[in-house]
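ARCHIVE CARD
CATEGORY: sequence design from structure
SOURCE FIELD: tokenized fold
FIELD CONTENT:
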């Protein structure tokens, strides 16, 4: 299994060092020659923001975005696991500090997430 993920895309816009790239994410079925006769073809377009301070791109340029699969696990940790752990720890600490007021503790814990 390869650790590299590549997506070809087109530059949609640039703003200083930030480049917005449109990629077309396709499933294996969408690349199939018989996709016109099959109802399971799946194709989505996504906009990706990329920081590129040392390169200059213009709208319409063709680019290749490259990433590692390990970045996906880091994203899951940062987006879901760490906030969940913080929520649980803060809930129990706040329940101890507020002498068991569950509603107030829950609201404060959710407030920490913002």
């Amino acid at each position: 299994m390869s650790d590299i993920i590549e997506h070809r895309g087109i530059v949609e816009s640039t703003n200083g060092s930030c480049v917005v790239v449109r990629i077309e994410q396709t499933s294996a079925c969408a690349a199939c020659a018989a996709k016109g006769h099959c109802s399971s073809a799946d194709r989505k377009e996504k906009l990706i923001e990329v920081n590129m301070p040392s390169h200059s791109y213009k709208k319409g340029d063709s680019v290749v975005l490259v990433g590692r699969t390990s970045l996906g696990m880091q994203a899951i940790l940062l987006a879901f696991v760490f906030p969940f752990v913080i929520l649980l720890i803060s809930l129990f600490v706040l329940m101890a500090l507020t002498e068991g007021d569950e509603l107030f503790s829950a609201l404060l814990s959710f407030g920490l997430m913002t």
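CARD ANNOTATION: The helical segments are 70-97, 102-112. The chain has a mean pLDDT of 83.
SHELF: design records, drawer C
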